[in-house]
Write a structure and sequence with these properties.
Chain lengths: 285, 302
């Protein structure tokens, strides 16, 4: 192919133009007003005044508002940890199954769950955890008194785990697959038990993958919106829900924008850690 | 090297090598405490896996069962018999119009994203230029940002540039949120493509355009199809962005269901869930047959 270089470069620029134009012009630029409005002054009941004040950020030092950040971080951390513990065995089986049927069945379940609408998945937990639901009746039959299983942090955490799980499994399959099975076989042939092989060969080798998958789940968890809305019953406020209510209901766009910047900062922080992590990993190899 | 080869052939053997290896090792040393612990560990992992699968699937089964119950209260076999009346909502005007809004936006957004995203993936996979990593990061960035952040930012930005809430702003926003999924799913297909096939076509006298349509495109078609499915589903699933940009006549099915989830206390949502799960199963089955989930996964897990 003896095309001049500038032509190749021009052609690839032309191919990139629409996608890059859309992403930069409509997405990256769209973040600017949010940053600007986050330092504006809120004029009750529903307007704002151009200014450079930090009041909207300082508001988050207040225990109630700071609590929203804490709840958000806590739910995504706990849910991520549980999702890793539950997801790893499934991902391992998909990556290593000797029977194609097992592999295909599990993969089908995971992908289908990923495709099922978020609201349907959250509602399914309303049906399970509801006051007249099967779990409540089961617990009462065993003699565990009427418990409130819905509209609390527990319900939101369970829903978040359910939401994260297919994604976590999908991201874990790759790292597990890339571990050479010969290493595990060698460990077993040398007399290590399956458990020993797992804890001292497989797990350490897949650890970077686990860390990456959990950080991705964590970022997604920070932005959870539908699940806390449906399972939290108005009593569990995560940042995304707070932003939605503060702007569309209270018309307090400055504080809503500040919360958005804080959420963005949290998510970006985690993403930067992820990419650093990947860089470090590729350098080692 | 020889160990690797030996274990490799060992793996190919039809017998369950893991089991035999284990018994041989155990027989040599007698059953030690470590073996018991290991066996317990294996059982525990198996249990955990079973629990995880049930945890994923069972809630949907409960919701589906709920759709046929006459009241909200859970009954394994209802005293007054099962009912189909909750499914009437599927023909409700409000629901039908919300579904058509969702599908309309998803189809248009997917069509635009698919064209722009495939071209971008082609450029990213083929051309070696400086800043390729940066371009890749920019193109994927909307995926990393929480939906509500995108929603509020779109609402404020569109107000500044004079784009009113409604159809136009929803189309634009949905193109932005679906585009990265197309790039991410289609890119590996171009990357793994055997270029010698294209060279052969060119050497036999085909033009570059002919080569693309006759050779390249058929080869990447599974990836493009997977990208279309992802894009479509992400658009249908969206709540956080749409809720900031919709008007009463552009209420989509996600926003409608969210409103119902917070206000309706009967089995309506269960009936809708059954319908949506059935649609999802059809999509999944078609995707599995046509592309295979392995190739979809190849695009997701990078």
């Amino acid at each position: 192919m003896t095309r001049p270089r500038w032509l190749t470069r021009f052609a690839s620029g032309l191919l990139l133009l629409p996608a890059l134009g859309i992403t930069v012009g409509l997405f990256l630029f769209s973040l600017a007003p949010t940053f600007v409005f986050s330092v504006y002054k809120f004029v009750p009941p529903s307007s704002m005044q151009p200014a450079v004040v930090l009041d909207n950020y300082v508001a988050f030092a207040h225990p109630v508002y700071f609590g929203y950040i804490l709840v958000t971080a806590r739910i995504s951390l706990v849910a991520t940890a549980i999702a890793m513990v539950l997801g790893y065995p499934i991902a391992y089986t998909i990556a290593r199954a000797r029977s194609t049927r097992t592999r295909r069945t599990l993969l089908f379940i995971v992908m289908t769950m990923f495709f099922v609408h978020t609201i349907v998945r959250a509602y399914a937990w309303v049906a399970v955890l509801g006051r007249t639901g099967p779990l409540s009746s089961l617990l009462e039959m065993v003699g565990v008194g009427p418990l409130r299983l819905l509209s609390n942090e527990f319900a939101v955490t369970v829903g978040t785990v359910h939401w994260m799980l297919p994604f976590a499994i999908m991201t874990l399959i790759g790292p597990i697959q890339s571990v050479d099975p010969a290493l595990e076989d060698a460990s077993r042939n040398l007399g290590a038990t399956d458990l020993k092989t797992f804890t001292s060969v497989t797990l350490p080798l897949t650890f970077p993958g686990v860390a990456a998958a959990s950080l991705l789940s964590l970022t997604a968890g920070f932005g959870m919106f539908v699940t806390p809305m449906i399972l939290g019953g108005g009593l569990v406020t995560m940042l995304a829900k707070f932003i939605y209510e503060e702007t569309l209901f209270s018309n307090n766009y400055p504080v809503g924008s500040a919360a958005t910047v804080i959420l963005l900062a949290l998510a970006t922080l985690v993403s930067v850690v992820v990419s650093r992590f990947f860089e470090a990993r590729t350098k080692v190899r | 090297m020889s160990i690797v080869q030996r274990t490799a052939t060992h793996r190919g053997a039809p017998a369950d090598h893991r089991g035999t290896g284990h018994t041989i090792a155990a027989a040599r040393r007698g059953m030690t405490l470590a073996d018991h612990v290991s066996r317990l560990g294996t059982v525990a992992v198996g249990g955990l896996r079973g629990f995880a699968v049930l945890f994923l699937v069972l809630p949907l089964v409960v919701a589906a069962h709920q759709a046929f119950l006459p009241t909200v209260a859970f009954e394994l076999v209802p005293k007054n018999g099962f009912t189909l009346r909750w499914f009437g909502v599927l023909f409700h005007e409000e629901f039908v119009s919300a579904v058509s809004v969702s599908v309309g936006i998803a189809v248009v957004a997917t069509a635009i994203s698919l064209v722009c995203g495939t071209l971008a993936a082609l450029a990213l996979a083929r051309a070696a230029f400086r800043g390729r990593e940066v371009v890749n990061m920019i193109l994927l960035s909307p995926m990393m940002i929480p939906p509500v952040v995108k929603g509020l930012s779109f609402a404020l930005y569109f107000a500044v540039i004079g784009l009113r809430p409604g159809w136009a702003s929803l189309f634009v926003a949905h193109v932005v949120i679906t585009l990265p999924y197309v790039v991410r799913v289609v890119y590996p297909c171009f990357h793994g493509l055997d270029r010698s096939l294209e060279e052969a076509s060119r050497n036999l006298g085909a033009t570059e355009i002919q080569t693309f349509w006759r050779i390249t495109f058929p080869l990447i078609r599974p990836g493009v199809f997977a990208g279309a499915i992802f894009s479509f589903i992400m658009s249908i699933h969206d709540v956080g962005v749409s809720i900031f940009l919709m008007t009463p006549d552009t209420t989509n099915v996600s926003v409608l269901l969210l409103t119902w989830a917070n206000s309706v206390a009967d089995n309506t949502l269960a009936a809708v869930s059954v319908a949506l799960v059935i649609v999802t199963l059809v999509v999944s089955t078609v995707a599995e047959r046509w592309v295979g989930f392995d190739s979809i996964l190849g695009g997701v897990r990078r």
